[in-house]
Amino acid sequence: MAEAVAKTRPHVVIIGGGFGGLYAAKTLRRADILITLVDRRNHHLFQPLLY
Ligand SMILES: Cc1cc2nc3c(=O)[nH]c(=O)nc-3n(C[C@H](O)[C@H](O)[C@H](O)COP(=O)(O)OP(=O)(O)OC[C@H]3O[C@@H](n4cnc5c(N)ncnc54)[C@H](O)[C@@H]3O)c2cc1C
Asked: Which of 36, 28, 29 is nearest to 6 (CA)?
């Protein structure tokens, strides 16, 4: 199934789920494309705002 989708739509791979990756994904969320976001963590973390 995923292979069939990948053949008909552009596949955008975003490396890093920091602010850059997060905003890229949000900007492209309604685009007719397949998005894969890759990060070493499974969550967004901006440590300076943890306090
Ligand atoms: C203390 C502090 C305060 C700041 N305050 C402000 C502010 O007030 N306003 C402002 O505009 N900017 C501020 N900045 C700057 C802002 O945080 C950065 O400009 C912004 O986070 C850069 O975005 P980025 O997506 O390039 O990197 P990041 O947000 O750092 O994201 C990088 C992502 O890549 C992932 N990653 C890294 N290496 C790998 C790997 N090998 N494999 C997989 N994933 C990986 C990380 O897990 C992370 O999710 C501040 C920065 C700091 C340190």
From this structure: 36
Residue 20 falls inside a structural domain: yes
Profile the chain (51 residues) by mean pLDDT over runs of 10 residues.
71 97 97 97 93 90
**Which pLDDT score is estimated for 6?**
56
Report how many domains make up the chain: 1
Instruction: Look at residues 45, 50, 51, 49 and name the one whose alpha carbon lies nearest to residue 17.
Output: 45
- Ligand 1 in contact with 40 (CB < 6 A)? yes
Ligand 1 pocket test: pick from 13, 14, 15, 19 the residue with the most ligand atoms within 8 Å of its Cβ: 19
Mutating to test ligand 1, I would choose from 14, 40, 45 the residue with most ligand atoms within 8 A of its C-beta, which is: 40
